[in-house]
Design brief:
CATH class of the largest domain: Mainly Beta
CATH topology of the largest domain: Immunoglobulin-like
Number of domains: 2
Strand content: 25-35%
Structural class: alpha+beta
Distance between the termini: 44 Å
Largest sheet: 8 strands, antiparallel
Bound molecules: copper (II) ion
Helix content: 10-25%
Number of strands: 12
Radius of gyration: 19 Å
Shape: globular
CATH superfamily of the largest domain: Superoxide dismutase, copper/zinc binding domain
Length: about 190
């Protein structure tokens, strides 16, 4: 019995699923990334990837990670492209271009922290997939925003806990648990 025949027997919804799945997945997973990062955890294990796309209005980061503690995690752009464990202090603070004191928090009325991003969520198995967008940064100096691919680079950091988007200095998001150096794609 052919695949289509089985699908027909199983009903219209299954036909869509069987005939559509392969093409839809390959097209859906494809992303023309302008930059990428390999995420490593505090023990140096590779736990995921991030793909970055530049737009006229900011940067989209597609994050795929495993091995996280289930629940919400703060994510930020850190100012230096070095991820040396276990604490990833080598990535320094959040990216910024201001001389004025940096105020963290997407929900903070005085917020001006260019490293701020929405939280991501890891499911019961510790896996997270998300796309987050920042209107505050650029990979290559588009629009005068804070540049990620500057001389000392930048890193995408995942923290142990959720970012409350208000409190200083990092919204209570705690330890740095995964880090990835942002590297321009060779295309
Ligand atoms: Cu951070």
């Amino acid at each position: 019995m052919s695949r289509i025949a089985i699908a027909a027997a199983a009903g219209a919804a299954s036909v869509l699923a069987l005939t559509g799945t392969a093409a839809a997945v390959s097209q859906n997973e494809r992303m023309a990334a302008d930059a990428t990062a390999e995420l490593t955890d505090a023990r140096g294990r590779r736990i995921g990837t991030v793909q970055f796309s530049e737009s006229a209005r900011g940067v989209i980061a597609r994050i795929e990670a495993t091995g996280l503690t289930p629940g919400w995690h703060g994510v930020h752009f850190h100012e230096r492209g070095r991820c040396e464990g276990p604490g990833f202090q080598s990535a320094q603070g959040h990216v910024h271009h201001l001389r004025a004191p940096v105020v963290h928090g997407l929900m903070n009325p005085r917020g001006n922290d260019a490293g701020d991003l929405p939280n991501i969520h890891a499911g019961p198995g510790g896996r997270a997939k998300a796309e987050v967008f920042s209107p505050f940064v650029t990979l290559r100096a588009v629009g005068g925003r804070t540049r990620l691919l500057d001389a000392d680079g930048a890193a995408l950091m995942i923290h142990a806990m959720a970012d409350d988007h208000r409190s200083q200095p990092i919204g209570g998001s705690g330890d740095r648990v995964a880090c990835g150096v942002i590297r321009a794609s060779r295309r």
